[in-house]
Amino acid sequence: MSIGREGAPIVAVGGGKGGVGKSVIAANLGVAMARLGFRTLIVDADLGAANQHTLFGIDRPGPTLQALVDRRIESLEEAVLPTGIPRLFLVPGSGAVAGAANIGHARKQKIMRHIRALEAEALIIDCGAGTSFDVVDFFGMADQRLLVVAPQLTSMQNAYAFLKSAVYRLMKQVTQNAREKEALASAVEGRETERLREVFARLRSQEPELEEALALAVGTYSASIVGNMLEQPNQRAGLVALSRMMEDFLSVEVPVRGVIELSKALHHSVTRRRPLLAESMTGSEADTLMALAEELITHDVSTSRRVRSRDIRPDEDVELDGPLAKYLRRHPRVPADVAASLEVDGQSWPARLLDLSQGGARVSCGHVPELGAHIVLRLPDYPGRPSFPAIVRNQGAGNGRVGIQFDGETATRRAVALVQAMAAERKLEVGSAPGV
Ligand SMILES: Nc1ncnc2c1ncn2[C@@H]1O[C@H](COP(=O)(O)OP(=O)(O)OP(=O)(O)O)[C@@H](O)[C@H]1O
Ligand SMILES: [Mg+2]
Q1: Can you give the residue range of the structural domain that contains 199?
Q2: 0.90 surpassed by pTM
């Protein structure tokens, strides 16, 4: 199963501050998910000082994320390492390579595209410290985001700043054109300390559609706090206060999902270079981490992904009918130029995918099937070789082009994922360095 395409959850572990336990928690969550029976992959996206491999006792990790950036490997799959724990694998990051922490937009897009294409049933991204765009973007690409927070004031401040950067980054990504970007920038400008809902209120009169999309994306942003290294039970109250402040100022609900105490066992597991849950399943740390893993793995990722891509409103049905032209206006179309084939009456015809939305596609094909025909669109060269049962809804005037509407929920779900992947790729082409 491929992550971004089939709905396997992507969980990011971040939190802004260094040394609060992000990597230790990511490693143990990985062990927990693997124990629950899921083929799990941890991606060490800490580009400054990757150390996941050390936590698993691996000395020389071989190819890393950096190898992909340097084009020493073609696919991130080549960097996947066994961890010694059944069903758990690791994509290591590079330890302190000069310049690696600043990879630039195109390279980051490439890494994210490769991460989404990895074969797994669950994926955990260990984000580095700090609030740079690189860190924030890896955090943002997940379906669920964990902010690891220690009960110290500095950790709480950093977690707030980190979430704020992530939310502002998300809002920027939701804007679709220069006018919207401008409207958002002027609504925010000079007022970074005020509540987000006041920014929304200002936008509402000026750009109601944008305001609606932003409020929806922010309102469905999935993040939670994991307290770590608590020394007294009452320290939980500080985390709850942080959570309330996040909701008040940033309009996102960030519940405290679990707390882990300061634990000698966890500390020693780092020295022994073996995650605690690989050794022992007793103790409150193990209980908390297992419960957290179970919640994360059963999370339905489809809605958050569609909302983020601005494909649907929550009250909108994914199943669409009516002519193609109608719903193509309702859903963003991604231009494509991808080899395809159309299966018509059991016969396969070479075709070209011209563009795609979550509802349907335009295809050029030497053989133009009849209106209303049930066909299958296949993309044999695309990762995962997706196929889409569809119905022919219109035919271009003698130019071999057909408009098709996807038939059934599975096809729609696949299309949603593919639209996102293609949109991400398109971004890659815009302004990318040659060959990246
Ligand atoms: N609950 C805990 N109890 C005791 N020690 C802990 C706990 N969690 C983490 N640690 C210790 O804190 C250290 C730092 O943890 P970790 O490397 O996971 O932090 P990090 O947030 O990933 O840091 P960085 O930002 O540098 O990547 C570890 O060496 C570990 O020993
Ligand atoms: Mg770390």
Answers
A1: 3-308
A2: no
